[in-house]
């Protein structure tokens, strides 16, 4: 990349660039080669007008792509209205939630009295509580 920038900067100033081979290595320089090499033709980059035209064209194509996507159904995502959601048993979810809180509290009490690590049991119970509360929220249930 450094060579490309070097070549571009030389080309923008109208200087010649020579690609030379010295001691089996390729070297780029502004002076003609002593042994073997040739002048490299470097074309100027796009003009500011060409860049602006390309950006306008890209923006136009992007907006056409967006409008064509929004005009029809999105086939990548299922229609949520068509998806079956089983009815929620709020009483059962509240019972499961209470049981998990009991499991968590029992593990905490046990670890305090026996000085044993029960963090895995506590974390599992807490994860289940979060899952149950999420289902309760989706189903419109209120915690007891």
Describe the protein in words.
The chain has 144 residues and is mainly alpha-helical. Among the domains are: 2-40, no CATH class; 82-139. The chain is built from four helices and three strands. It has helices at 2-12, 48-71, 90-114, 119-139; strands spanning 17-22, 25-29, 36-40. Strands 2-1-3 form a three-stranded antiparallel β-sheet. Helix 3 packs antiparallel against helix 4 (119-139). The chain is elongated and about 90 Å long. The relative contact order is 0.08.
What is the structure about, briefly put?
The chain is mostly helical and 144 residues long. It has helices at residues 2-12, 48-71, 90-114, 119-139, and strands spanning 17-22, 25-29, 36-40. Among the domains are: 2-40, no CATH class; 82-139.
Shape: elongated
**Residue runs with pLDDT of under 50 for 5 or more positions:** 5-12
State the helix count. Answer: 4
End-to-end separation: 66 Å
The whole-angstrom Rg is: 35 Å
Strand tally: 3
Helix content: 55-70%
Average of pLDDT: 79
Summing up helix and strand content along with how strands pair, one would put the structural category as mainly alpha
Strand content: 5-15%
Order of helices and strands: HEEEHHH
Sheet with most strands: 3 strands, antiparallel
In spatial order, strands of the major sheet run 2-1-3
